[in-house]
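Hi everyone, sorry if this is the wrong subforum. Our group has a chain we'd like a structural model of before ordering constructs, and none of us has done structure prediction before. Sequence below.
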Amino acid sequence: MGMGHLYRIQKLVNKISTVIGAETTLLTQRYTDAESIYMSIGVDHLYQMPAGITEEDEIKFVEKNLKNRYSLFINDQLQSSKKIASCFVNKAEKSLAIDDTGLGASLYDLLIN
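Answer:
Right subforum, don't worry. Here is the predicted structure as tokens:
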């Protein structure tokens, strides 16, 4: 994970928090030290998906951990299927995906690549 990626997310989160006033919820793959980095950016809620899990286990993870409806949900994972993306989109008022080129990318309100 490069620093450009983090700076881009930081700018988005700061703008969303200050201008729009929405709490931000971020789902990302589990990276070394990612939690401290993302929380320092100002993300309100952070969920880290275990790396290399099956689609079925990913859906179970979402159902188990994401129990609320979120103001803004940011998906920072690659290659979301339509099934997975619909799980995320249904949990949020607004949804945004970063660098997602999967079949589910079209379901998000905003896609940034």
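For your construct planning: DSSP finds four helices and five strands in the chain. The longest strand covers residues 70-76.
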